[in-house]
Amino acid sequence: MSESATLADSYTEMTELLFPNETNNLGRALGGTVLHWMDICGAIAGMRFSNRQVVTASMDHVDFIGPIEMGEVVVIQGYVFDTGRTSLEIKVDVHAEDPKADERRRTTTSYFTFVALDSAGSPTPVPEMDCPTADEELLRREAIDGRRAQLRDVIERYDVTVPRE
């Protein structure tokens, strides 16, 4: 395994067409379907980065900020923005596209933690994050800041008390 990998090495984009089987009675995407696609996209990004099998350890808060209508194209994008010893922090964005109007809008974003596994199924070290370009460093910084902002919003919205160390 190489000692470092780049954010670009992990970048993954998937597209899906929203069909009736994946919608609720209003003709909009089922939340579980969107979460499923996000998990798959995050896993692919993690595998591309680490060259290992990965498993989902956690998923941060998710707000569905806009609907995805039946017949729209769903674009799911993910990339690794930080690492631990065996863990990968991955940002996943979801957008809906109306193919008739050439319009794209964001519908949700979440942050996942995946853990890399060796051939025996045990956690194994991952490469260090490298952002050799200004664009990669900007995406990394935006993901770190976005995750912090999202967590702050959740704490404030639900009046969560965070224990002090």
Automatic annotation (TrEMBL):
GO terms for cellular component: cytosol. InterPro entries: Cytosol_ACT, HOTDOG_ACOT, HotDog_dom_sf, Thioestr_dom. One of its GO terms (biological process) is acyl-CoA metabolic process. One of its GO terms (molecular function) is long-chain fatty acyl-CoA hydrolase activity. CDD domains: BFIT_BACH. The keyword Hydrolase applies. It comes from the Archaea. Gene3D superfamilies: Hotdog Thioesterase (3.10.129.10). Residues 8-120 form the HotDog ACOT-type domain. Keywords: Hydrolase. PANTHER family: ACYL COENZYME A THIOESTER HYDROLASE, CYTOSOLIC ACYL COENZYME A THIOESTER HYDROLASE. This is Acyl-CoA hydrolase. It comes from Halorubrum vacuolatum (Natronobacterium vacuolatum). The lineage of its organism: Archaea, Methanobacteriati, Methanobacteriota, Stenosarchaea group, Halobacteria.
